[in-house]
UniProtKB/TrEMBL annotation:
This is Flagellar hook-basal body complex protein FliE. It is found in: Bacterial flagellum basal body. Belongs to the FliE family. Residues 1-35 are annotated as: Disordered. Keywords: Bacterial flagellum, Cell projection, Cilium, Flagellum. Coiled coil: none annotated. The gene is fliE. InterPro entries: FliE (IPR001624). It holds the Pfam family FliE.
Length: 108
């Protein structure tokens, strides 16, 4: 049974991603013999994307405050995306710190 990924329309200014849940085989994270993608570069890429989302929300907030934004829902969507991404990043960081502390408590 094949599960097809969800399809969403491309919204202006949101980016080119229209599928959720699909990972191309070339970008999939593999074991030690996998592609050149390292965990550190994945983390940095995620932080760059978070920064992009927050920058976009900030720019739309300025446009809304100055009256230059035609559709206020663009700002609310961008602010919600940035908020969810920030919450996810903080949760991941907290879990990583907990895991590190647990490893440090292990006896060798």
């Amino acid at each position: 049974m094949e599960i097809t990924p969800l399809q969403f329309p491309t919204l202006p200014g949101i980016g080119g991603t229209t599928e959720i849940g699909s990972v191309a085989p070339s970008t999939a994270v593999k074991g030690p013999t996998g592609p050149d993608t390292e965990f550190g570069s994945l983390v940095l890429d995620g932080l760059d994307r978070l920064e992009g989302l927050t920058d976009k929300a900030d720019n739309l907030a300025v446009q809304a405050a100055t009256g230059k934004l035609e559709n206020i829902h663009d700002y609310t969507i961008a602010a919600s995306e940035a908020s969810v991404a920030s919450q996810l990043t903080v949760s991941l960081r907290n879990r990583a710190v907990e895991a590190f502390n647990e490893i440090m408590r292990m006896q060798v």
